[in-house]
Design goal:
alpha+beta, two-stranded antiparallel ribbon
Length: 379
C-alpha cells in the first residue's frame, strides 16, 4: 500500500506499483497494485503484468445501462447484506470493537456504480438495509470510471479501498462479486471477495491507526511509504530477515500451542526476539521505523485477522482452520500482514478482549497490547 500526502490526487500513473495477491485455494495468483492517499488503502487486483482489465472486460457485456436502468441486483444486495451481517457477527463474537460506524459503500459491477450512504433520514431515504443499518442507494452508469465520495476517481477494475473524508466519515469502495467471479480468480461461493471485504471493513473501524501514519510522515517518515516499508528497507540484511522469520515462527507456534502455558512461553520468547531485533536495527536515522512497524503491524494485523475470522466462521466461509491459515497468509510473503496476523492470533488467545483497543478512537497498538497481556512492562 503506497502512502502519499493526504491531499494528493489519485491517478493511474501513481497507482503503478504491482505486487502479488496469491489465491492459495486454487494455487493461482493475480497481481495487485496498492497505494495510500493520506491513509487511503487502494487495492487493484490486476490479471497479469500488462495492466488490469476494466470491469466491463471482466464481465460479459449486456445491454448498455443507463441512469434509469442502473439498479442494485437482488443477488448483489444479498451479498452486501451478508457481508455486513458477517462483520456484526464477528464483532459480537470475537472482535468486541466499539459499535459499528458504518462507512459509505461504493460498489460496482461491469456497468453500474452504486453508492450507499448510511441513511440520514430513515423515514424517506431507506433503499437498502444491512446489519440493521439503513442505507440510501444512488445507482449510475460508471462508464469505466468509479467516482469516489471525496471527488477522486478510479478505473473500474478489481478493487477494494477504504478512505476517510475530511469530516471523518469513512468510505469503502469495492468491485462486486460478479467481477471477481468473471476474472477467473475468485474462489467458490465468493470466499475471496467476502474475506477481502472483511479486511477492508476492519480498516473503516480503525481510523486512528491511519491518523498515526500521517503523524509519522510529519515526523520524517518518507511521504511515499506503504505497509511494506520495513520489508523494503531491511530485507537486504540477512540478519534482519532471519531475526524476523524466527520471531514470526514463534508467534504462529504460540497461536497454535496445545495449552495456555506453552502459548505464554512461546509468546514471551517471540516478544523478546522482537525487542532484540528492534533495538539492534531501529537506531539513529532508522529509529522512526519502530513506530511505523508497530502501526502497520496493527493495521494489517486487524485486517488479516478479521478476514481469517470470517473464513473460519461456520456462518461465514466455514473453512477449516488448517485450510484458512495458508489461504490468508498467501505464503507469508508480506511481512506486515503475516506477522500482524500472528500477533493478533496470539493476543486474542491470551487476552480475548484486548484487540478491541485497536479499534478505539485512540487505539493502543498491538505490541504494547501483547506486552500487557504477558504481564510485562516496556524496558
Amino acid at each position: 500500500m503506497r502512502i502519499v500526502g493526504q491531499h494528493d490526487a489519485l491517478t493511474r500513473a501513481q497507482c503503478h506499483r504491482m505486487r502479488e495477491w496469491a489465491h492459495v485455494a486454487t494455487g493461482s495468483a493475480v497481481r495487485r497494485r496498492t497505494r495510500r492517499l493520506g491513509w487511503t488503502t487502494v487495492l487493484l487486483v490486476v490479471l497479469g503484468a500488462m495492466g488490469a482489465p476494466t470491469a466491463s472486460a471482466l464481465e460479459p457485456r449486456t445491454t448498455r445501462a443507463t441512469r434509469a436502468t442502473c439498479r442494485l441486483a437482488a443477488a448483489d444486495s444479498a451479498w452486501i447484506a451478508t457481508a455486513l451481517d458477517g462483520w456484526q457477527r464477528l464483532n459480537a463474537r470475537t472482535l468486541h470493537a466499539p459499535p459499528t460506524r458504518f462507512p459509505i459503500l461504493v460498489l460496482f459491477d461491469s456497468l453500474c456504480s452504486h453508492t450507499l450512504p448510511p441513511a440520514r433520514r430513515p423515514e424517506v431515504d431507506v433503499a437498502f438495509v444491512g446489519a440493521g443499518q439503513a442505507f440510501a442507494v444512488r445507482s449510475v452508469e460508471h462508464g469505466g470510471t468509479i467516482r469516489l465520495p471525496d471527488g477522486d476517481s478510479l478505473p473500474a477494475q478489481l478493487i477494494s479501498i477504504t478512505s476517510r473524508l475530511p469530516n471523518g466519515d469513512m468510505f469503502l469502495v469495492m468491485s462486486l462479486p460478479g467481477i471477481w467471479r468473471s476474472s477467473g480468480r475468485a474462489s467458490p461461493h465468493d470466499v475471496l471477495a467476502s474475506a477481502v471485504f472483511q479486511h477492508e471493513f476492519a480498516h473503516t473501524q480503525s481510523a486512528s491507526l491511519g491518523s498515526r501514519i500521517d503523524a509519522l510522515i510529519r515526523r520524517g517518515l518518507p511521504a511515499q511509504v506503504d505497509d511494506d516499508v520495513i520489508q523494503k528497507r531491511f530485507d537486504s540484511l540477512p540478519e534482519f530477515q532471519s531475526a524476523y522469520a524466527a520471531e514470526r515462527d514463534l508467534l504462529f507456534a504460540a497461536a497454535s500451542a496445545p495449552d495456555r502455558a506453552r502459548a505464554i512461553d512461546l509468546a514471551r520468547r517471540a516478544l523478546a526476539a522482537i525487542d532484540r531485533r528492534r533495538a539492534r536495527f531501529f537506531r539513529g536515522p532508522n529509529a522512526i521505523y519502530a513506530d511505523a512497524e508497530d502501526v502497520f503491524l496493527s493495521m494489517e494485523g486487524t485486517g488479516q485477522w478479521s478476514a481469517y475470522l470470517w473464513l473460519v466462521d461456520p456462518d461465514g466461509g466455514a473453512m477449516p482452520m488448517a485450510q484458512a491459515l495458508p489461504f490468508i497468509r498467501r505464503g507469508g510473503r508480506r511481512w506486515s500482514q503475516d506477522e500482524g496476523l500472528a500477533l493478533l492470533l496470539v493476543l486474542s488467545r491470551l487476552a480475548p478482549l484486548a484487540p478491541r483497543e485497536l479499534f478505539a478512537p485512540s487505539a493502543t497498538t498491538v505490541l504494547p497490547l501483547l506486552r500487557r497481556a504477558l504481564g510485562q512492562r516496556r524496558s
